[in-house]
Amino acid sequence: MSHDRIFAIARQTGTIMVTLVGLLILTFCIGRLMPVDPVRAIVGEEADRATYEMVAERLGVNLPLYTQFIRYVGDVVRGDFGVSIRTGQPVISDIAHVMPATIELATFAILGGAGFGVPLGIFAAINRNRPADHIIRFLTLIGHSMPIFWTGMIGLIVFYAMLGLVGGGGRLSDYYIGLVPETTGFMLIDAAIAGDWEVFGDALNHLILPASILGYSSMAYITRMTRSFMLDQLGQEYVTTARVKGLSKSRTIWHHAFANIRVQLVTIVALAYGSLLEGAVLIETVFSWPGFGQYITNNMLIGDMNAVMTCVLLVGVIFIALNLLSDALYKIFDPRTR
Question: What is the rounded distance in angstroms from the CA atom of residue 230 to the CA atom of residue 147?
């Protein structure tokens, strides 16, 4: 391995470590700045002073801040994220239980968002300032501007309550709950493993609407960015040169212009996926979706410091992981970055 390669790996590792340390400091500060007393959240408002001080000592909140931070970092390194006040279970176990629901929702949303957003953005760029471009820009403006909780409620009223085309809140109808063993936590996969296609269909029916609404929001962003990237490439001299030399329009667009924006799109889609994973709070609340967003919301309302700090830390780690994935995909799509 060359010295340049070793240096590059060391530099990237150092960057990751510095980012993680900054993330730990941020989550620790958030936990200490929450306007809720974590001790009162446990003992209640009627507890006497002796009980309050005993719990405070057990939690370590009566120690100096630097000592609390050192203990917090040590716990994180050991994989100890504390116990949730609300559930009485280890926070990491709670997150492992709710995260598959959010991953399932966000994955379907990003597949729809990127699957429609990229072609629409390219089509809009090709037809710049034509009716098709104006229609696409209008639709993306609506998707980017409308509050997602409002879109979710309208979707429930129209497609569930009025038309009955999709399932309502939750991941399953009440009479299907518990019929399929929870093997992976992903409802569609668990139903497929069990061979229960009736439950599979019901789970898919409940997933379609919230995933479509989230996907529409991400599609609006991806479409606008794709259009912008493509317009920049279509204005380059190499596109004109290719057309003058007799290269077909479709080949010029897909084999040259699009090839030059793939790296940028990787970053856009990765960040959009990360935003869906940590930003599905409102849609999960509207649809009573038992995922990560609803979990962090419920724990914030009662001041569950361990749960909130762990959730914030996890969100940061997710974005770091997605950036690393983007770097790896860069090397696949653009050999010049290797």
Answer: 28
The SS3 assignment for 163 reads coil
pLDDT exceeds 80 at position 337? no
C-alpha span between 267 and 329 (Å, rounded): 9
**Residues 6+ away with beta carbon under 8 Å from 127:** 133
- Please say whether the beta carbons of 113 and 144 come within 8 A: no
Q: How confident is the model at residue 208 (pLDDT cuts 50, 70, 90)?
A: very high
What are the structure tokens assigned to 180, written together? 């399929």
pLDDT exceeds cutoff 70 at 335: no
Question: What's the start-to-end Cα distance of the chain, in Å?
Answer: 14
Structural domain boundaries in the chain: 3-77, 95-337
Handedness of CA 272, 115, 131, 210 (dihedral sign): negative
SS3 category, 319: helix
How far apart CA 148 and CA 286 sit, in angstroms, is 9
Find tokens 């084999």 and name the residue.
255
Question: Does the pLDDT value for residue 91 go beyond 70?
Answer: yes
Q: What would the two tokens of residue 148 be? A: 């997602």
CA distances from 132 to 106, 124, 139, 140 (A): 29, 7, 11, 12
- CA dist list (Å): 73 to 23, 27, 49, 113, 132: 11, 11, 29, 37, 54
DSSP string, 35-59: SS-HHHHHH-TT--HHHHHHHHHHH
Please tell me the CATH code under which domain 95-337 is placed: 1.10.3720.10
| C-alpha distances in Å from residue 265, one per residue of 8, 158, 209, 223, 249 | 24, 33, 25, 10, 21
**Following DSSP, what letter does each residue of 62-80 receive, concatenated?**
TS-HHHHHHHHHHHHHTT-
In single-letter form, the type of residue at position 170 comes to: G
**Interatomic CA distance for residues 101 and 297, integer angstroms:** 15
- Tell which residue, 48, 14, 86, 49, has the closest CA to residue 311: 86
Instruction: Decide if 311 contacts 94 (C-beta within 8 A).
Output: no
Evaluate if residue 254 carries a pLDDT over 60.
yes
Q: How far apart are CA 48 and CA 148, in angstroms?
A: 44
